[in-house]
Amino acid sequence: MSGKSSKSKSKSSKSREPYYAVSPQWKDVSPIPLIDGPPGQQKDPGPALATIAYSPRYSEAMSYLRAVMAVNEFSRRALDLTEDIIGMNPAHYTVWLYRAKILKVLWDLEGTSIEDGVKVELEWLDGISERALKNYQIWHHRQLLMSLLPTMPNTEPGFLSHILSFDSKNYHVWTYRAWLCRRFPDPLLNTDVELDAVDALIAQDVRNNSAWSHRYFVVFGAEELRYIEEQGGNRKDVLASGSLVVDEEVVEREVNYTKDRIAWAPQNPSPWNYLKGVAKRAAVPIGDFQVYCESFVGGRNADLMGDQVRSSHAIDWLADIYKEDGNPQKSKACLDALGQKWDPIRRKYWEYRARQMGDV
């Protein structure tokens, strides 16, 4: 018991001890403390209404950061200072931006190549990334570094797989990954490297909607974005215009791939949504999937309230298919089944869709 108390006390006292104020390396710097008081009363602001309980150690480091930023100091000690502050608060975006500026200046002054400089910084950044998985600033900094390189480091795909092993649905990682594909289309988009990586993640968890979304981006989305950026317009109009080239072999591959994964878990919405996206992208009539969807409910004239139904998503598709086929009665029967039995939590939504068809 006394050992724990002593350890806790030592850690607490360390956080209160001055560091920069007693460091010979920083003796020429006059720290700029944070003034929390009302604006316009900087000499004697008085107590602020609500202040953040910064630790003394963090407050001291920030006061020295303000001092070096005020004179635009881009030095090794300033770089070390940013590392210290990021270690205490990795979400401080101003520190990350300042660090990026310091790196570029130092590389130039010290004759370090961009490739070598980025490599060293990435090695440091990898460790920080593991300790702050959901931190946006880390991934923005990584993006800045990668944008300086002519080719993608061959270690990057492995690193992303490692980070996603902690949380396979980390939004910041997937956003960065999409950017990386556009930054380095060769090899990520021009070969099967990225597609194989996403396939492995879907195999691990077929319900990983992030992986399904990224698969669409790799197969179709990147091309859509490139076309919109070059030609203007929005995605809805571009798809409706039929301006995008559709590779029928790719569409067939994706349809078959998705059907196989739906078979793994018919009630999983992710592949159903993906299949709908593929059909829309390729302008495949939804009616072409009627027999396929009916196979999940027991056949063409099956009881939609019966136990043979294996997927409520198939019923949702059939509601649209029957409506387009001019059979509003069967469409409403699908919506009624969804609202009454298979998806009652969204009953109001299904009733709304039924009302949109009017009296039949």
TrEMBL record:
Locate the region Disordered. Answer: 1-24
Q: Name one GO molecular function term.
A: protein farnesyltransferase activity
Enzyme Commission number(s) from the entry: 2.5.1.58, 2.5.1.59
Note whether Magnesium occurs among the keywords: yes
Q: Which InterPro entries match?
A: Prenyl_trans_a
One GO CC term of this entry? CAAX-protein geranylgeranyltransferase complex
Domain of life the protein comes from: Eukaryota
Name of the protein in question: Protein farnesyltransferase/geranylgeranyltransferase type-1 subunit alpha
Tell me which species this is from. Answer: Exophiala oligosperma
